[in-house]
Specification:
The radius of gyration is 22 Å and the shape is globular. By secondary structure, the protein is of the alpha/beta class. Helix 1 packs across helix 13. The longest helix is centred in the last third of the chain and has 18 residues. A six-stranded parallel β-sheet has the order 2-1-3-4-5-6. 36% of the residues lie in helices and 16% in strands. It folds into two domains: 194 residues, Rossmann fold (3-Layer(aba) Sandwich); 168 residues, Rossmann fold (3-Layer(aba) Sandwich). The N terminus is likely disordered.
């Protein structure tokens, strides 16, 4: 690996999807999802005076730029593509970022859930190792979004020594030349909410099957709770309410139509700023993250940061980023290596939600003090700084 001049070092971020997430000129608190974590790296580079640029490339052969460090961001280029790319750039380090779990596990979960919800019987999931996943592991180091993600790849034989764990980022900002947690206003409920004597559940997520929305609605329908409401924040579901194509199977759409016909289900436009986030949480008694396989979600960390109680499946990777006991847990089926009764997960959700409701405290189970996400921010900054010190 060739030595680098710190003063003239440069970084190129390469991704193969989307053209709507440049970081230049965007305030850190406006960054959402995985962008927020990469945004911390951008802040670190800016503070170090390191130049950087983004490159959108469906194929790595399109990348003609030179750099002192390449970062492959959340895109699965083939093993051959990454191999040839490295041959064209000898000695230049490459970091890849695994923001999804192994396709073998994700597909197995989808097949198991479709069988449980729709009665579908499909062929088993494909080969355990995917060619594009092998390509990502040709990098010098691989950013894993959660322990769940890292452990899953390690179980499939990928080199664990290459993986660097990077926690989920809360909402952060720049203050006095350093990255720190943003001060968020308390999510105070509206007068209308205070007059409402019911119980408000909140769901945030795009994929209605993998994120567990359909499973949550099955559980919600079975809850014996007066005045219950389910608030859905999902770009996919919202687009569907606007008559837009969401590219989902007919069986999934049938369940979505059934859910939307329920007057106790409220579909909201996705929030896109801090004010919208705080407003969405203001009326939530409990946020439920019933994912079937999720290296996140960042929404879980946001809820913790705001002090909203969370019930999350054991397959939500972000759970391990938060203090033990700060999140209520429900066991999710691991369809890739075990079988269980199709309704069992629904029944567990009903039991846990009901148990929370009967505590009769919308902030039950959380520490009495204000949640402190500063350690998360510090860990992320230190992780990025340590990685850069290996290459710069």
């Amino acid at each position: 690996m060739r030595p680098m001049n710190k003063a003239s070092a440069s970084v190129v971020f390469i991704q193969g999807f989307g053209h709507d997430d440049p970081f230049t000129g965007v305030p850190p608190e406006a960054l959402w999802g995985w962008q927020r974590n990469v945004g911390i790296l951008i802040a670190v580079l800016n503070l170090k005076g390191t130049t950087w640029k983004e490159k959108y490339a469906r194929h790595l052969s399109e990348v003609k730029e030179g750099a002192d460090l390449f970062v492959l961001r959340d895109w699965r280029y083939s093993h051959e593509e990454v191999y040839q790319f490295r041959k064209r750039n000898p000695g230049v380090p490459v970091i890849s970022m695994l923001f999804q779990g192994p396709r073998h596990y994700i597909d197995s979960q989808r097949i198991g859930e479709e069988k449980a919800l729709f009665g579908h019987t499909q062929p088993e999931a494909h080969e355990q190792q995917d060619d594009s996943e092998k390509g990502l592991f040709l990098a010098d180091c691989v950013i894993a979004r959660s322990r769940l993600n890292a452990d899953s790849f390690a179980q499939l034989g990928y080199p664990k020594e290459k993986m660097v764990l990077l926690p989920h980022a809360p909402i952060w900002t720049l203050r006095h030349g350093s990255v720190c947690a943003a001060e968020l206003p308390c999510a105070e409920s509206s007068p209308a909410r205070r007059r409402h004597e019911g119980f408000d559940l909140m769901f945030v997520g795009e994929n209605p099957l993998r994120k567990g929305l359909l499973r949550l609605y099955h559980a919600f329908s079975s809850l014996d709770i007066p005045g219950k409401r389910l608030h859905v924040y999902s770009r996919t579901i919202f687009r569907y309410t606007q008559g837009m194509d969401v590219d989902l199977p007919d069986c999934t759409l049938a369940h979505i139509r059934q859910m939307m016909a329920d007057p106790s289900v409220v579909v909201h436009a996705p929030y896109r700023d801090v004010a919208g986030l705080v407003g969405a949480h203001a009326n939530a008694d409990l946020m439920v993250c019933p994912s079937l396989y999720d290296c996140g979600p960042n929404a879980l960390v946001e809820a913790y940061q705001l002090g909203t109680p969370v019930l999350a499946s054991t397959l939500c990777g972000a759970v391990s980023d938060l203090p033990a006991g700060s999140v209520h847990l429900v066991t999710a089926p691991r369809w890739w290596h075990q079988q269980e009764i199709g309704s069992a997960f629904t029944e567990r959700l009903v039991e846990q939600i009901t148990r929370f409701y009967l505590r009769n405290d919308r902030r039950a189970g959380l520490p009495p003090y204000k949640p402190d996400v500063s350690p998360l921010v510090e860990t992320i900054v230190e992780t990025w700084a340590s990685l850069l010190s290996r290459f710069f």
